[in-house]
Design goal:
Elements: E1 3-6, H1 11-15, H2 24-30, E2 35-39, H3 48-61, E3 64-68, H4 80-100, E4 104-107, H5 117-137, E5 144-147, H6 159-166, E6 175-177, H7 178-184, H8 192-206, H9 208-212, E7 215-218, E8 220-224, E9 227-232, H10 243-252, E10 258-261, H11 267-285
Parallel strand pairs: 1-10, 2-3, 3-4, 4-5, 6-7, 7-10
Antiparallel strand pairs: 8-9
Helix pairs in contact: 2-3, 3-4, 4-5, 6-8, 10-11
Length: 287
């Protein structure tokens, strides 16, 4: 099984007269999609009844739910209060996930700040470990935390760093944003070997099962020497990476990921394109 869906709501959702996120699952189902990543990136202010309504509609439409935790989480902050708040933000997002029936929470690790990368990791790892412990104590052990590879070079969240974070607990699954990897490595994802290297690193460190069931973010992306600049759409073919190459790797490795499209403004439409590319590639292997 493989899941395709958007991160948040496309502009067209609102242009067609829809107003509420609980209307998204049915809308996505009619497009042939089966995943939806609800955005709590600006905070977890959603009401319980609204979250439950989204979950109810998702179950009806066969949509698998995940949630993106607030962007302002910083596991490596120099301020103890901010590190403690980051744990609370993760717990708050897990609570929303529980209401909604979402099984994965995506986490931005934060920034390196004034520290070396090694010092930042030494601060971040105990905070993430405490978040896992607190989530278990609060009854959220069935929700998978997914630390995400980030796109700016000064962000905490290189592929190596995310793998190290996920080594803390076998339940953690990396959120591999291939656009972000492409941006922070200044365009390294060019052929199948490049994508396979990513999977090999994950598999060698975290095992085959987690490599097969990754949480994937994808979009074409523009970058500078500092890394990520802007997400683009599948129509913006001057920007990489190329999803067809990734699709071939996914098929050959028999993976079962959740694939969330983060294209600018048209994430649902582009999720359909990603699904079509994947199905075309798969049909070539299994005639």
């Amino acid at each position: 099984m493989i899941w395709f869906g958007p991160s948040g709501n496309s502009n067209s959702f609102y242009e067609e007269g829809y107003r509420h996120s609980y209307q998204m699952p049915e809308w996505l189902g009619k497009m042939g999609l089966n995943a939806y990543e609800y955005q709590c990136n600006k905070g977890t202010n959603i009401k319980k009844e609204t979250a439950e309504k989204i979950g109810e509609e998702a179950r009806k439409a066969g949509i698998r739910l995940s949630i993106h935790a607030p962007y302002y989480i910083n596991l490596a902050s120099s301020e103890e209060e901010k590190r403690k708040n980051s744990i609370q933000y993760i717990l708050n997002t897990c609570r929303v996930a529980k209401w909604m029936g979402a099984d994965r929470v995506v986490i931005h690790p934060g920034s390196v700040g004034k520290f070396s990368r090694e010092e930042a990791m030494m601060r971040a790892l105990p905070v993430l470990a405490e978040a896992i412990k607190s989530a278990d104590e609060a009854g959220f052990s069935d929700i998978t935390l997914c630390p995400e590879v980030l796109g700016k070079i000064n962000n905490l969240g290189s592929l190596d760093e995310i793998i190290t974070m996920c080594s803390l607990d076998e339940r953690l699954i990396p959120c591999i944003d291939f656009g972000h990897i492409h941006a922070r490595t200044l365009g390294s994802l060019k052929d199948k070997d490049d994508f396979n290297t990513v999977f090999d690193m994950i598999e060698n460190s975290l095992g085959t099962e987690r490599a097969r069931k990754l949480h994937i973010h994808f979009s074409r992306i523009e970058f500078t020497q500092a890394g990520e600049k802007m997400h683009h759409t599948m129509e913006d073919t001057e920007y990489g990476p190329d999803f067809e190459i990734l699709a071939r790797v996914l098929v050959e490795r028999k993976t079962e990921p959740v694939i969330i499209c983060e294209s600018r403004d048209r994430m649902a439409e582009d999720a359909v394109i990603l699904k079509e590319i994947y199905e075309k590639v798969k049909s070539e292997y299994f005639v």
